[in-house]
Amino acid sequence: MIYYETLSKDELKNEIEALENRYNAFKGQKLKLDMTRGKPCSDQLDICMDMLDIPAKDLRRSADGTDCLNYGVLDGLPEAKALFAEMLEVDANEIIIGGNSSLNLMYDTVARAMSLGITGEIPWSKQEKVKFICPSPGYDRHFAICELFGIEMITVDMRQDGPDMDTVEKLVAGDEAIKGIWCVPKYSNPDGITYSDEVVDRFAALRPKAKDFRIFWDNAYCVHHLSDKPDMLKNILTACKKAGNENMVYMFASTSKISFPGAGVAVMASSTGNISSIKKSLTIQTIGHDKINQLRHVKYFRNLEGITLHMKKHAGILKPKFDMVLEILEEELGGKGIASWNKPNGGYFISLNTLDNCAKEVAKLAQEAGVALTKAGATYPYGKDPLDKNIRIAPTMPPVEELKKAIEIFAICIQLVSAKKIMEIA
Amino acid sequence: MIYYETLSKDELKNEIEALENRYNAFKGQKLKLDMTRGKPCSDQLDICMDMLDIPAKDLRRSADGTDCLNYGVLDGLPEAKALFAEMLEVDANEIIIGGNSSLNLMYDTVARAMSLGITGEIPWSKQEKVKFICPSPGYDRHFAICELFGIEMITVDMRQDGPDMDTVEKLVAGDEAIKGIWCVPKYSNPDGITYSDEVVDRFAALRPKAKDFRIFWDNAYCVHHLSDKPDMLKNILTACKKAGNENMVYMFASTSKISFPGAGVAVMASSTGNISSIKKSLTIQTIGHDKINQLRHVKYFRNLEGITLHMKKHAGILKPKFDMVLEILEEELGGKGIASWNKPNGGYFISLNTLDNCAKEVAKLAQEAGVALTKAGATYPYGKDPLDKNIRIAPTMPPVEELKKAIEIFAICIQLVSAKKIMEIA
């Protein structure tokens, strides 16, 4: 183990030369490896293919006799609501089933608040300023929604147990322009951490100055465990009810990474007050989402146990990939004082921090050797990582052999950039 | 044939008595007949059921090798674009494929203009006033979108060849607040008329004062013929291009009434300039719509000819219903000078006009005898038919025997209300 900062200039030079040789050897292979997005791999999609072979005759009628081929049923089939209510630990009447994308549900929820306002408050677009709190590193697509609608983003640090709640509490209590906060509370994107019970309780007990403040609780990875001892997340809606804040949270989830990213079922959950308020404009927006696909999912998974068993198959495919990434990172970077990273129990990412001001250079170098990473900075609002240090590793998509090469190249790039940086400073 | 207004008071009394007897006989049957919405009937859905039995293995990959189960392909599979481009007579690069609802695409298009504006203009929500022209009678769900977003609706009369274009031209040229017009140009809802070539050309040649004025061209019934000699609709996008107005129109359509209302594929078409502008925010809204369902539709229909053949089966089911309605209307109401109605070559509705100030009363009376009609007034902005005379008949959903009863009751109600009205005046 070498602690880079203790090395002499000559030792550093030698190290850099050795790394450059390894780097160039990979570069010569003209690789094309993609780790940009949290996409399931082909094997993960294979295991659900038989859902698409459920015969038409079994998809025609829902349990209550509704013709699923025809119009209607704005907020989802009762059995689909029941399935997702179980998954999200809420009541079926606290559920709205959407189309195939929870991102679209989140976008719609923000868009609706912009144009129509939330439960009688002035529409956000007519308020002087609207701000969202963005615990970071976080999910770039959340931030993109804010940016599109001109919502000012306030970065708050992520800790090992969730967002920095001291700051969150102060911000929402003091500023009426703060209307929301983005959360990925379980196996967070990208850190892979799960909010502690205390953090959830502090969320539920928030006393926002704005009546139309909402927590956007994107529970994207609620059943996406990689370990037999999965993280437990306290139920935010229940906690909000206890704290007298039942209208403060919108929960989102989908089967995008359970069944199919391209043809799954998305869902949102909230208090019955919020749900009925949303349905008033939802009924103008659509007559109803795809009920056949809802029924397909219900027939296939049946209940939460069915989903849980299915997710074990996903874990069986993903865990070796995550393990391998962690092994290589440890082997290449361990003890060198140049990078730190999380070891998540679930989700889709490994978040790595380099030395300050190295992330962009690492991503650039990796790109030049044929390894596409999520854009450095993407995990922060406006794509600007203040310390230029966070990189999101998405190990799910590439086949194991490609992933191995990609991570090795990535680790070489980190060492190379770090050694040069230390050399400059020395 | 009796012309009601020529009858003496005594003759009218006798007529009313006879009608009341017939009405009460039906009322005694405690019927429950629904003609409220333009929903396909069960038989129409049956003929497409086998689409849902296409094996999973045939749905995995698009022609270009894309894994349709995974994320991506924002604007639709190339083969789906090609199919709908053929149907809408546009280029494939003028197409965006949506989810299962063209209503949702229209809603999104208005919502986007409200929040984000159209190609660089000030968002509608930040403009002092936004108005839409609503040719009426028209489609209540179009009007509902305007009402939700606080868009002021200006009623313009429908003629036998389309909207009153003299008025439309004057309005859009003179008022910058007018941002849109709703059109169902083929087999219009509810009149069943198709815009003439001249009307389409006048649309294309509009010189709106507002740069962000758009024609919302809801071609919902483009292939929904009931006759072997279908109406022909001139292509608005081509006409707009010729008139130097290529960005002025958004076209919408779906397979809701081709395949499945609950699980079809929606589509919009516009100039490549508009399409690329829409995609800039669409990419924030979703990663992509359901590609499996797109592929299912492409494999099933293959091309426009496939759709056309399929639509002949629909016509085979619907034409007898339309014929029967028209026959009963003629038999009961013909020559009495109390109602007029259209004989459409396609679409989903028969539009009927009573004497002034009779429609609500007719609907109420029908309701009391167990026949639910589309709410009287619904075909006008704000649900207010200025002359209270238009009623939309939706004959597709009920089985023939039920439809027969429903229309007979309906026709009795018209006669009864008209006779009483004439009696009052006399």
TrEMBL record, chains A, B:
One Pfam family linked to the record: Asp_aminotransf
GO MF assignments: DNA binding; L-aspartate:2-oxoglutarate aminotransferase activity
Protein name: DNA-binding transcriptional MocR family regulator
InterPro entries, alphabetized: AspAT_Ic, PyrdxlP-dep_Trfase, PyrdxlP-dep_Trfase_major, PyrdxlP-dep_Trfase_small
Keyword annotations: DNA-binding
Signal peptide: none
Keyword DNA-binding attributed: yes
Protein source organism: Ruminiclostridium sufflavum DSM 19573
Gene3D superfamilies: Aspartate Aminotransferase, domain 1 (3.90.1150.10), Type I PLP-dependent aspartate aminotransferase-like (Major domain) (3.40.640.10)
Claim: DNA-binding is one of the keywords in the record: yes
